[in-house]
Amino acid sequence: MNLKRRQFLFLSSLSAISTGFLSWILTHHHQSADISDSTTAIAANPAKKDLLLRFVSVADTGTGAKGQYAVARAMNAYHKQNPYDLVVLAGDNIYNNGEIEKINEVFERPYQPLLKQGVKFQACLGNHDIRTANGEPQVKYAGFNMKGRYYTFRRGTVQFFALDTNSNADWENQLSWLEKELSISNAPWKVVFGHHPIYSSGQYGCNPDFIKTFTPLYKKYGVQLYINGHEHNYERTRAIDGTTYLICGAGAGNRPVGRSEWTGYSTSDLSFASYEVYKDRIELSAIATDNRIFDKGIIQLKSA
Question: Potential cystine with 277: which of 53, 168, 184, 271 (Cβ 3.0-4.6 Å)?
Answer without folding.
Answer: 53
